[in-house]
Amino acid sequence: MAELKEKDAEHLHQEDANTKDTESDSSKMPADSEACEQKPIHEASTNPVKTEDKNGQTSSTVVSERHVSIQTTLEGLEALVDLNGAGRKSCPLCPEEKFKACYSHKLRRHLQNLHWKVYVEFEGQRMCICHLPCRQLKSSLGSDQTQGRLVAHYHCVVCSVTIARKTDMISHLKRHINKSETEASYSGSSDVPFEDPVPAGQAYEIMKELGTNVQLLPNHTTPQKTDTYFSRKMKTNRQLVFCSLAVLAEERNPLECLDAFGATGIMGLQWAKHLRNSVKVTINDINEACVKMIKENCHLNHIRVEGNRTGRQLDGAGDADAPIASVEVVKMDANVIMHLRPFDYIHLDPFGTAVNYLDAAFRNVRNLGIVSVTSTDTGSLYSKSLNVTLRHYGCQIVRTEYYRELAARMVLASVARAAARCNKGIEVLLAVALEHFVLVVVRVLRGPTQADASAKKLRQLLHCQWCEERVFLKPGSMVEENLYRQLPCQCHGSMPGKTAVELGPLWAGPLFNTGFLRRMLVAAVQHNMEDVQPLVKTLICEADCTTLKPFPVPGYSALSNQVECGVVIKTLQKVEEADTSDQSGKRKNTGEESGNVLKKIKADTSLEHPAFYYSIHRHSIRGMNMPKLNKFLQYLTEAGFRVSRTHFDPTGVRTDATLAQFKEVLTKYSVPTYSSAPQSSAVSSDRRLTL
């Protein structure tokens, strides 16, 4: 007992002395042994902040919070274990299974060559590498049932967070320097009654988006390093999803909406904070760290967590008059919660592909509800990993000039098949493919008739590898003798061998709903989403396949005039009644009215936007200067074609003209590069005719 007591006293005294000069360690050790035994426990529980003010940086609070891997000298690191004693000793910074107990000379060499040399220095203090079980790498399944492996890491001297990589720790310390944060600014955070293993919100970075504050971990941009992943590049995706939910909330309320993969919970918090009583938000995540982070972000935004009223939430609610909204935070597998409960709006945003969750999403979604799917596996969607594309989506594709629209139609094909397996059809409201994600928003239509109609829109695509002309194969089960006849180009007759490939199956229907997009634009204006408004305007022009701008100042008048462009009959009947009541004093019968709506929908199918687009730079003519893109759109319109720009490609043109007609107009209005060579135009036209 006497030896143990003496060792504990020596250990505590050495920790206290590491923050001072280490020259006087051996002289003060016997005199202060008993004081060092009792002082940390007593002062940490009574008045830790006052002790820090009295003794400067040698306070007992700092000693109790600072990790043993943070030292100022090599002697302080070696003093963590008695190297002068006999027998085998264990490393104080390594577990027993990683470094077995050894003699003093070998342990001293281990501390010098590994822990002391692999370090990050900050203001004269070294954060040596630590192998203790302070940090564990999360499992690939994201569940707590599997034991994670130990990861070497560093302990931050300022906020005591653990970071695995040395470069990340250096960047983390630079952020502390830029914010003028020191160790004293984090010393008072331990008095918060919070049960998390990491300090409360002050240790995280706070980010504000659309009036919603969220706490972010240091490595929030890398999913492999943190549980609560967050990407600032997905802001456009979050705003588009918010606008689609706001449009649905105008049709019916209250809505039961689900954010199946919450992460930080920012998307669900934005729904609850801005739509208030119109929605009942449920935020789900299977990771325990994400659930705790979501609850903290709810408290940060004065939003009550239903079914989890703790003392901290009541204190936060007392600062304001009352919580502005309430959300339900659930820790469950996404497939399980979608099977257990019905929802009006479901958003799927996993890290990667969402095909594993489509069946559960359509199993229990309500009629005329909306399912939005965000896919971030751009490697397989954008034709970089063809084997993964075939495995996940069951599609044969190649790299083309219209690869982004090809990705959107491929995701929609998987969504339509999943809905058809549940005897449901889909109506595509929105399809966006940008650099980092592919977003599709569909409305669910119950019934086998709707499911059959959606399944019939899945077709194969015939793509010419020489000129990149493309066309959807005609529906039917009969085998044609020569599929090349369906292609408008003549490459097969002039080129040897096989010139075309068959891609798909893909979604062959429209990608946009004009009426829904116009209401999304109104919602974006109402909630001051200036970043997403130009994109929505481009989508409206692309849906109508026109270059006209019918929305100088978007408002409710544009909404009332364009709602009939939608495809949901029940929603259209109410608007049609309001429109027809102005024309005549008497109302029409509901049967006649619904029949008229169906006729309008069938008539509008011929006016659907053309499939795919052509890049003006891809088909430019060598030796010729092309006209400006807006001028070229005007020339195509004067030639009698429907044209519009596309969000898929800034140089793309969506038109109902064939590739030969497209090139003909492009050649007609292109001028030679050198004015001294007027014959180049005739030569290029002859070359075009030979193709």
UniProtKB/TrEMBL annotation:
Biased composition regions of type Polar residues, renumbered to the chain: 56-65
Composition skew (Basic and acidic residues), residue ranges: 1-26
What the entry lists under SMART domains is as follows:
ZnF_C2H2
This protein is called: tRNA (guanine(27)-N(2))-dimethyltransferase
Q: Which InterPro entries match?
A: SAM-dependent_MTases_sf, Trm1, tRNA_met_Trm1_C, Znf_C2H2_type
Q: Where is this region: Disordered?
A: 1-65, 578-597
A Pfam family annotated for this chain is TRM
Location (main, coarse): nucleus
Compartments reported by the entry = Nucleus, Nucleolus
This protein's superkingdom?
Answer: Eukaryota
